[in-house]
Design brief:
The protein has 272 residues and is mainly beta. It has helices at residues 4-37, 130-134, and strands at 45-50, 54-59, 66-67, 76-81, 84-89, 92-96, 103-106, 109-116, 119-125, 148-163, 169-182, 185-189, 200-204, 218-222, 229-233. It contains 2 helices and 15 strands.
């Protein structure tokens, strides 16, 4: 009888650990969905207007260069000159900082400047967007601890060329790469840094891409390395913004991050 209690305790501990992990993944998924439902999410991004040099008039009236779904008929003008964007509204002119929290409010809408390569544009957020109204939640593979792996981190700082959906390519800083085993194979992924560099950002494709998962690949965030280890939890792999709106300019996986295995974990294709 003495040996049965430790086995029972071990079994109970394993069951508790498994249920705790499932609860963690459930909490992560709820937070992910709540983020998409909130004001200012990618589901509210309802337009992207590339600016031409000079004046770009905006408003609800069809004669404007940028036609908006709300606000006055003629709200104002964005001007692009010498790589700088300004907005003129109600007789006042101010400069807009691209890719910042600097916004222009028109009715229920907000617009903000973005800069991609040689292009400058105005991205539109609409809290009453069709995509937000039609959002029906996310679909996932069943959570499995098989896809939570501890990888070995190899420091090898360099720049990696990252293409985006616009066909542009820009270098991003990578601190090195991670090596791990999955389905009997040794695999390697290269993370990049987004400012500020408080985590590792992986852009990857696998053999589910374009089938069960989004065709352009998925994203995964991890903590910075602890010593030479990084925990990759593919149950927390998620779709890029381009899965939810055609007005995002998502990065694409580099050649090094195209895996010849099926990662049956994480977020599936949205809308299927």
């Amino acid at each position: 009888m003495a040996w049965r209690m430790p086995l029972a305790l071990l079994a109970g501990a394993a069951l508790f650990a498994a249920s705790t992990y499932q609860a963690e993944i459930g909490q992560w998924r709820r937070a992910r969905e709540a983020e998409l439902r909130q004001d200012g999410s990618w589901l509210t991004v309802a337009g992207l207007f590339w600016l031409r040099d000079g004046s770009n008039r905006f408003g609800k009236e069809a004669s404007n260069d940028i036609v908006l779904p709300d606000g006055p008929a003629h709200a104002g003008a964005f001007e692009l000159r010498n790589g700088k964007v300004t907005v003129t509204m109600d007789g006042h002119t101010r400069q807009l900082a691209p890719d910042s929290a600097d916004t222009v409010t028109v009715g229920r809408l907000s617009l903000f400047a973005i800069h991609r390569g040689p292009k400058f544009g105005m991205r539109l957020r609409d809290p009453a967007s069709q995509a937000r109204r039609d959002f029906h939640g996310l679909d996932y593979f069943p959570a499995s601890e098989e896809y939570r792996v501890t990888a070995r981190f190899v420091a090898e700082p360099r720049k990696i060329p990252i293409a985006n959906v616009l066909g542009q390519t820009e270098p991003m800083a990578s601190p090195g790469y991670v090596v791990f085993r999955l389905h009997g194979q040794e695999l390697r992924l290269y993370p990049v840094f987004e400012a500020p560099a408080t985590s590792l950002f992986f852009i990857f494709r696998d053999q589910t891409s374009g089938k069960e998962t989004y065709g352009a690949g998925r994203f995964l965030d991890t903590d910075l390395p602890r010593g030479n280890q990084v925990v990759l939890d593919f149950n927390k792999a998620y779709n890029p913004p381009c899965a939810f709106t055609p007005y995002a300019t998502c990065p694409l996986p580099p050649q090094e991050n195209r895996l010849a295995v099926r990662i049956e974990a994480g977020e599936k294709t949205y809308g299927h």
